């Protein structure tokens, strides 16, 4: 099962936009997704804090700042069919 996580932080407008895009695309493809606040974990803050929102697919960084919809969709389809 493919796992998508959006690394976010409170008050982040780009994070809200990314969550909306991820929700829509994952919904279309039947892929579950979650969010995680980078500011709740010092390691996450250090790794992702300057790049939020960060999209992880199966724990691997896929992209940051904005969702590139075609690229994200293609990566999800590939991950689901592996």
UniProtKB/TrEMBL annotation:
Name of the protein in its database record: Glutaredoxin family protein
Organism, as annotated: Amycolatopsis alkalitolerans
